[in-house]
Amino acid sequence: MLASTLERMPLGLRPFGPTRSGMKTLLIDAPPRRIVSSTLTLLAGGEGTALSALGYHRVDATQIDVDLPFGFVLDGEHFPPGSYHVRSGTPVSFLRA
Prior knowledge:
Layout lengths: L1 E3 L18 E6 L6 H9 L5 H5 L2 E6 L1 E6 L3 E3 L2 E3 L2 E6 L10
Antiparallel strand pairs: 1-2, 2-3, 4-7, 5-6
């Protein structure tokens, strides 16, 4: 699972498909099927029923509930196994000097 509220990704990558606002997710069924041949299509924002049939799903969501049997690492911080509720928060503004 990959989720982001970014409207533009680095290097012009578009794993979530067309550019749009809000929380976007890319869900990949396990085990991934044809991952090597699908990677370029996924990163370029390609769409189609073929990707969905292979287990690659793009979903727009306002919130996601995830039950994880194993811990995970997010931005270098380790989180324990458990149930997590993910939602968009208040937008952050960055200051430039």
